[in-house]
Design a protein that fits this description.
FAD-binding protein, alpha+beta, flavoprotein, Uridine Diphospho-n-acetylenolpyruvylglucosamine Reductase, domain 2, Vanillyl-alcohol Oxidase, Chain A, domain 3, 6-stranded antiparallel β-sheet, Uridine Diphospho-n-acetylenolpyruvylglucosamine Reductase, domain 3, 3 domains, 30% helix, globular
Amino acid sequence: MLPILKDLQNQKIKCITEPRQLISYSCNYGGPFNPPTLIVEPESRNDILKIVKLANTYKMPIAVKGFGHSTGNQHETNKGILINIKKLNRIHSLKKTKNDIYCINADSGVSWRKLINYCLNYGLMPYVFTDWLDLSLGGTISMGGIGSASFRYGIQSDYLVKASIVTKFGQHYRMDKTHHSELFNAARAGLGQFGIITSVEMTLRKSPTNCTVYKQIYTNFDTFFKDSFELIEKTRVDAIIAHFECNKSELIKRRLGSDYKKIYHKDFSRSKWLAILEVTEFSASNSSPPIFKDCLKESFSIKDYLYRIPPILDPGLEKQDSTHTEATLLFPYNQKCLDLFYTLLNQLSYEQLGFGTILFIPLKSSVIKSPFFIKPQSTYCFLLGILSRNMNTLASKQFSYLIMDFYKKALALGACRYPCDSLKTLSWPNHYGSCWEEFLKLKKTFDPNNIYSLGFSIY
């Protein structure tokens, strides 16, 4: 028996050591990874305190897993302890402050789906929402959390106003912008390097009742990028997201639905790729955005809109799919970066991407406030999430080679990795740049035994 196991069981903390379960728990959206030595299922913050104290005593690394949607080895523990956070799933309070600001307090293991469902009952919603809601609050706040409204509101970690964290050797801190502010800033988009967030308090905004979604196809990508960045300056636009799809009818139908032929013109057939831009308005309007010349228009209740399943996560595909390789990068918006992307599109084949897609979200750098969220040094930037889904081993290897070459060239042009993907950061000091020394100092202060989130291989 593991020495730590008896101590954990004495503390009445559920432990899992059965090999098949360890292997099962080690899987995430990207696939199977090296299993931990032990899985624990805490039911409270006090359980987390006990686990962290014992992990330090036995010098065992720790990683936290929520819903397992990342595609890399972020929750690998190097023969350590994997903490399944899902039982920390209570919403504690919803309040209105003296300044008429709404705030919600919840455990870090609560899913965004559960939180949004709760908030909509009160006519409220988060400022930033991801396109897939089965993610934990603690997970996206530790990563940053980019969504289709990020061009205006920044990232999810920007809306954290208070949090509880277990750090160091099992100490608990309640932190905000004035109390333990160094730790507060480090925990937001800090990749879980400084401790385990156990509860969060975030600001909310009022939600609309309905919304309208407009979709348009582009084959001229210079025009696509120009239109996208013009649209994020329009006050009537509330969300914007796009996908580059291989020009295959089954993929276009998946993205646009059975009405896709209404805007799919014959001359599109000459293009290898199509860009499908989706713009959402929360306010009522009788006309499409002026930039759109020929688009599909669809109305939703706000709940149906937020709860939509992204086509890339279609359950029918999940059953036949085995490999999810992803590269997620933030680019400065300039012609050199666009040319690099166009070169990738020319090289990338349908077989290599499989049923995957390339996600695009335009952003304004200035609205992102979390200090350790690394972004390009440019006024405008954009996220590209390149996701491959295929079962062909050769095509998968070819994709990985292409993407690694693309990644290296992107870094040389000022791009940054958004590390929820399956890439390996080539140099963390280069990634953090001028923030690196501060990052190291805080790591030594709050994790002197270097036990938190080793899957990122930062140290």
